[in-house]
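Hello forum,

I keep getting stuck at the same step: I have a sequence, I want structure tokens, and every attempt I make locally crashes halfway through. Rather than fight my setup again tonight, could one of you with a working pipeline run this one for me? It's a single chain of 209 residues.
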Amino acid sequence: MIKVLFADDHEMVRIGVSAYLSAQRDIEVIAEADDGTEAVDLALEHRPDIILMDLVMKEMDGIEATQKIVEQWPDAKIIIVTSFLDDEKVYPALEAGATSYMLKTSKAEEIAKAIRATYEGQSILEPEVTGKIMTKMRNSGDIPLHEQLTNREMEILLLMTEGKTNQDISDELYIALKTVKVHVSNILGKLQVQDRTQAVIYAFKHDLV
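Reply #2:
Ran it on my machine without issues. Output:
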């Protein structure tokens, strides 16, 4: 079972989405929070497989909550589920450590799919979010770091942008899973990013896809 913590200050949203998720064979909502402070406490207490995080909540917002969770638990997988698509929400959330970014307009089954994909190591971004990231990054003027990547590392990076997990990459390239993990670690180091999501964003930013 994929254990999920759902943090949202709208009770009806929590009830509706949690009911759908709990009806799935492979997903279990083990805890709910109605503010960021409670979300941090429950996340560190239960260590769920996935955290669904609203952005605008009382006491502490989702961005700060995400940052505090990731600081104490770097392996946390956090999916932002929000109504906001503006720049001051999207980029800080991803920079804080969010793995995926979904909109509340998404259907419950799409959120369930995002949970499964994120659990498997993929990063799910709404198309609108991807478009905004690409536009912003193309205009940022940063010095590219990808020239340091070997041909194999570039190949793996491109597979990561397709949402491939380490196991998928291992199977597709016929190399050991341990070798894939080493390559991914090297990619993150050379691109000076902290996780796969940021590596994918880098690829979009520099038109590598």
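The chain is about 55% helix and 10% strand. If your local run keeps crashing, start a new thread with the error log.
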